[in-house]
Design brief:
Blueprint: H1 7-19, E1 30-33, E2 39-44, E3 49-56, E4 62-64, H2 73-77, E5 88-89, E6 95-97, E7 100-103, E8 114-117, E9 127-129, E10 142-146, E11 150-157, E12 168-177, E13 181-190, E14 194-195, E15 199-200, E16 202-204, E17 218-222, E18 226-230, E19 236-242, E20 254-255, E21 277-281, E22 292-296, E23 301-307, E24 311-315, E25 346-351, E26 367-368, E27 374-384
Antiparallel strand pairs: 1-2, 2-3, 3-4, 5-15, 6-9, 7-8, 10-11, 11-12, 12-13, 13-27, 14-26, 16-25, 17-20, 17-22, 18-19, 18-21, 21-24, 22-23, 23-27, 24-25
Length: 386
Amino acid sequence: MVFKALVLASLVLNAVAVSTPRAADPLATVALAAPDGSIKANFMAWGATTTNLWVKDKNGKFRDVLLGWDNHTLYQTQADGHPYFAPVVGRYANRIRNGTFTIPISKDASGPGKKFQIVENENNGTDTLHGGLIGYDARAWSTIKQSASSVTFQLVDPAGFQGFPGEVTTEVTYTLENKSQWKISMHSTATELTPIMLSGHHYWNLEAYEESQDLNSHIVQAEASRWVATNGLLIPTGKLNSVEGTPLDFRKPKSLGLSINATAALGNCGTGCVGFDNAWVYDRPNCGESVFSIWSTNSGIKLDVTTDQIALQIYSCNGIFNPDLPIPRKADQGGPDVFYQDHSCVVIEQESIIDAINNPEFGVNQIYGPHRSYNWESTYAFSVLK
């Protein structure tokens, strides 16, 4: 998603860190490994965040392919900005037009139905991003179960917080499995009718910045023939457009980095933006097979995603570099004396269709409650190019 350095958010987050019940140290590292040792990862309870993920390249060497901070306090204080480095984002991922919705849902919260106002935290207070000023990424989760290869975090989101109705209890389980597989499961229950849309907000560079500093060698394939049209602020218009003849057509494998310049004329990532910050709708959702793949021809690392989610968001790190607040790379990605640059990484989010709670024409029911729980399942399978 678009990089935002929110000074106000930093102040509020510091206050929340003091008042929110949590484990003794939500920044402590939870180190896991698959039983066969093929994949390793570190997590922490703050934001249910993945801080590191190591997989083997074509030479059998482990590389940490996730962006983040070596200094875990920066996840909490946001002193170096707020890029959402690999947490769970919610209660509602992505953007909500004007920070409003109705239940039952209506077009742009025009009614009928009860109207709700959520804390607006983006674009000068004109929309809500990732659940408001204090989203799921900015709270201490509880660690309720842990083994050598799996951990489960839980968050109780109070009724009315950030403006959302109902109390929501969410559990996310991260499991590292044999043959370099990472399984992520999320489950939420609510006491009242409320919108829920979660996602993992992971930043990837499958080379760990060793061979290059761009995405030219990153090849993407996605089984998606439609994308969600948005306005200049990346708010959905209610239309699903064809990818045919556009830079957003990844039905056949092509370079992500070499496709970026072609987006300038389309303006698909917002006014004045070059790159991708878009949602696609899968052609075969929940098919039980990989619907998204990305690989590096340099490192040889490949990622195949199987998911029960119907949509995909890709953000090509168009605004991650702020010259006034540059983010140092992790040490095992060449840092800290060099910084994460624009178009050098990619965020991949499995999720539902964005802002469907303001666009009933999408035909997606994102309202959950006492008689309908929320579920999210994805498997990230890593391999090496032959």
